Amino acid sequence: MAGLSSRDGLSGPLKAGAVLAAILCAGYVLGIRVGASTDRTSRVFLVLASAGVFVLPIVLKSWRATFLCGLVYIASSGLLNHLTNYHTVTRTLKFAVLGAIVCHWFLSEGLDRVRSEGWRRYPLLVPLGAFAALSALEMFNPAWTTTMSGVKAGLSGLTMHVLPMVLVFVGYDFVTDKRQLSTVLIFVVAVSSLIAAFGLFQYWIGLDKVAGWGESFSATLRREHTWGKSSVPVMKPISMASDAGEASMYYVLGFVLAAILYFRPGGGAARNLWFPAIMILLLVALFLTQLRFGMVAIAGTILFFFLFGNRGKCLFIVVLVAVAFFLAFFLSAPAGREVLVERYSVLQDPVDAAATNRGVQFEMIQIMCNHHPFGAGIGRAGPGAYVGASEEDRATAEAPGENYYASLVYETGIPGLLLMLGVFFLILRRAWVLYYRVPTDPENRTYCLGAAAFLLALMGSGMAGPVLYSTPASILFWFVAGVLFRLPARDPQEEPLPVAGRYGEKSDARQASVQLT
After folding, report:
1. Cα–Cα distance measured from residue 141 to residue 131, given in angstroms and rounded to the nearest whole number
2. Cβ pair 263, 302 in contact under 8 A
3. How big is the CA angle at 484 (ends 481 and 487), to the nearest 5 degrees?
4. What SS3 class is residue 506?
């Protein structure tokens, strides 16, 4: 199946995503009212989620609809997990959805592309393929107590860590013109805004009422909440995600994409009203989650646009950040205000804060390199660590701490770390090339800056947490990277548009009709 042309648009997939969002929202409201602890409610949500995710795309026969519906489901899967008390099916369904997205794309479009043009067309194929092969070999690492334990844990690790990397290729094929790109950005911003609005609703009704929705809600909120100076628990709203950190990923991405849409050339007065309002909504929700990494990512995005984009609008966004903080401050009870001031005051000296709060994590990379230069087996690190491992392996495993790069060494050794650092270098190099080779296309440069800011923020956050081992961060990271490689690296008025080869640059006039123009 050939790629969509500009006249095809994304109306069908967008309608499917909107219908699924409506189904899930209605179902979740029903589940909250009925009570999350009953088996009947669990079955209701399993049916709604499964039917909505898999039936709508099949009816539309569109792999793009599969992706958008899957994104809506994954964005709300944390709420479904809580409502069903982490039922085994709901806990694993999002990875089945991710696999369905990849399979539907490959059978609908990727396979035809490979047959006609070969694998070289896709960006980052060689380093990511090498990393996947190395990860698969680590299932048979002699550090495992038994081969079966290594295979079970390895399959879990490949599913959680390596499978999302295929979304680089899905993202590359997803968007074929600027109109589609803008539409997809607006859709993701809308999903992020819905998550933010629900998070604010949770904060408004309070800790006790949300904990009363079910046992899983109560346990998560007890684990997530912080204490004010008056020893009063302060809620971190989890919204539709599994925890506040996962929800913050959507707030950061939504803010970055809203900033892209706000900064891009053209547009009318409506855009200048809607997108600032959306950014304030996302920022207020982000402040209430108390995730300082999120604010560092926001600050980095503003700095990117200030250095390379419209400085007047950047100053306006700084004002929006201040407005959002004061809104969050006045929405909070006294204990919440104490926590907000205390947690975000450390950003006055972020280097010292990182050394104080996460200093031990920086040393873990060297420790893992010394202890496991060739890895200890995939499936040992990240949020899903030891899912398939035996009890003996769980008892003897040496945890690498909350550091993505140390986790890479722990699982795949120094070769795995070097491969992933090489991938990150190629992504940032692509962003650099895009910015400096398309001087007459300010819209593409705006997209490039926003994507680079988001991707770099997640790369940096890996020093303080195994971010790319978990959804939605891994899904969003690799999809945005794929879209970044779709953007043309040269002025389309001067020469044929490029096709991203193994490392992202190969000119081929045959593909000019499906590139962003």
Report:
1. 15
2. no
3. 160
4. strand
| Strand positions, DSSP E, 198-337 | 226-227, 233-234
The single-letter code of the amino acid at 116 is S
Which residues are within 8 A (CB) of 396 and not within 5 positions of it... i.e. 6 or more apart? 145
Least confident of 18-22, 26-30, 470-474: 26-30
Given 3-state DSSP classes, what are the helix, strand and coil percentages for the chain, each rounded to the nearest 5? Answer: 75, 0, 25
Q: What is the pLDDT of residue 471?
A: 80
Spatial distance between the Cα atoms of 172 and 128, rounded to a whole number of angstroms: 15
3-class DSSP state for residue 385? coil
**Measuring CA to CA, which residue among 29, 26, 25, 37 is closest to residue 214?**
37
DSSP symbol at 490: S
Would you list the DSSP string of 98-149? HHHHHHHHIIIIIHHHHHHH-GGGSTTHHHHHHHHHHHHHGGG-TTSSSHHH
CA 182 – CA 510 distance, rounded (Å): 24
Helix ranges, 333-403 (H): 334-345, 350-371, 391-396
Q: Is the pLDDT of residue 68 over 80?
A: yes
Most confident of 13-27, 183-197, 210-224, 323-337: 183-197
% of the chain with per-residue pLDDT over 90:
23
The angle subtended at Cα 426 by Cα 162 and Cα 298, nearest 5°, is 80
If pLDDT is split at 50, 70 and 90, which confidence band does 218 have?
confident
pTM of the model: 0.87
pLDDT in tens, 363-419: 788 888 888 899 888 988 877 777 777 777 776 667 777 788 999 999 999 999 999
d(CA 74, CA 387): 20
> In DSSP terms, which residues pair with 233 in a beta bridge?
227
413: left (phi over 0), alpha (psi -120 to 50) or beta: left
Q: What is the pLDDT at residue 9? A: 55
Burial bucket for residue 430 (CB in 10 Å: 0-12, 13-18, 19+): buried
Chain position carrying tokens 């966004």: 317
Residues 6+ apart with CB under 8 A from 350: 296
